[in-house]
Backbone:
């Protein structure tokens, strides 16, 4: 599974951005996808997750009501719509996919995309 993110950039506080993550390869093996972020000097944290089969979602408390995760199964693409952005949302955002490989579950990661929110 290969993951390629796009859509990061610089935005003012209160603004919006939409991140995209295009998956290719053995996408049929993906059982969950999510967005993580890592700010300078901090650990990587889960932002949102979506289960492709069924579409259930979950969010970190810090982004609930502001961010929306979605997936277009036909395009094998996942999105993160980010509204009402705050300076504390500044981070590198990573796309993640969990896929079944044989009898194990393997994590795949994109290269990351920088999101910078200016106050």
Residues:
């Amino acid at each position: 599974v290969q993951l390629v993110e796009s859509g990061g950039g610089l935005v003012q506080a209160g603004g919006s951005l939409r991140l995209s993550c295009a998956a290719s390869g053995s996408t049929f093996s993906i059982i969950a996808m999510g967005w993580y972020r890592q700010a300078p000097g901090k650990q990587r944290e889960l932002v949102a997750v979506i289960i492709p089969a069924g579409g259930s979602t979950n969010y970190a408390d810090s982004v609930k009501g502001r961010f929306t995760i979605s997936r277009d199964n036909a395009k094998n693409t996942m999105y993160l719509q980010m509204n009402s952005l705050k300076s504390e949302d500044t981070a590198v955002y990573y796309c993640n996919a969990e896929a079944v490989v044989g009898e194990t579950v393997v994590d795949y990661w994109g290269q990351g995309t920088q999101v910078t929110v200016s106050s």
